[in-house]
Amino acid sequence: MTNVAKDKVFQALKERILSGDLTSDDPLKERDLAKEFGVSRTPIREALRQLVSEKLVRIVPNVGAFVGRFSWADAAEIFTIRKVLEAYAAQLTSGRLIVSQIKLLEALLTTSAAAVRRGDVALYAECDEKFHAILNENCGNQHLVEMIRNVNDKTKLTRLRLSLFQNHENTRQSLKEHRAILKELKTRNATACGHLVWQHGQRFYAKVLQTDQPPAFIE
Question: Rounded to 5 degrees, what angle do the CA atoms 90, 131, 165 make?
């Protein structure tokens, strides 16, 4: 029962931090959280320790737990890792996609193109996320999938997409690159597909890091 309670608290707090509901340096008081979730302080303490291990929370001895800070230096390092992982996943996925999945990618690009024409940033960002999820999660290597999901959480990629795609030229370039990636997926060219995904990630993350952002990333 304790593990179930801990997991529930952990997931709830993690979602709040990653969504921005809880911001940098917000206090996380065990007594208040125990009352909110209707559990003892033991699962709260365990959930906080797990959040510390993911660098989402920091604990100050004799003071308490607080939502952590995540700097752009951290983001730059994680982006470097992520683009390599995504490129490798795409290489593996290129030989595994079935016809229905290829058609789904084609449909996503059709919707993406409509979103670009209408200037619908939210829709384009949603399509972009789904496109990359298909490339990442069909690689056949669950450990690789989990690693990509983990760095995705740490960089809060969904919010970054929305911010970057406010620039119309960025969405047009992104769509162009997605079309090139899909072309290589159809030919099962693993090397070319991995290279294009790496270039795509390189451009995207470089653009993110060029933007004028606050020093505290989780906020």
Answer: 115
Least Cα distance to 132 among 75, 181, 205 occurs for: 181
Please give the Cα distance from 2 to 166 (Å, whole number): 44
Q: What secondary structure, in 3-state letters, does the chain show?
A: CHHHHHHHHHHHHHHHHHHCCCCCCCEECHHHHHHHHCCCHHHHHHHHHHHHHCCCEEEECCCEEEECCCCHHHHHHHHHHHHHHHHHHHHHHHCCCCHHHHHHHHHHHHHHHHHHHHCCHHHHHHHHHHHHHHHHHCCCCHHHHHHHHHHHHHHCHHHHHHHHCCCHHHHHHHHHHHHHHHHHHHCCCHHHHHHHHHHHHHHHHHHHHHCCCCCCCCC
- CATH numbers and ranges of domains, the chain: 2-67 (1.10.10.10), 72-210 (1.20.120.530)
Tens of pLDDT along the chain (219 residues) come to 568 889 999 999 988 887 667 877 889 999 999 999 999 999 999 999 999 888 788 898 888 999 887 666 777 788 889 999 999 999 999 999 999 999 999 999 999 999 999 999 989 989 999 999 999 999 999 999 999 988 876 666 666 677 788 888 989 999 999 999 999 999 999 999 999 999 999 998 888 777 655 444 443
Pairing state between β 64-67 and 27-28: antiparallel
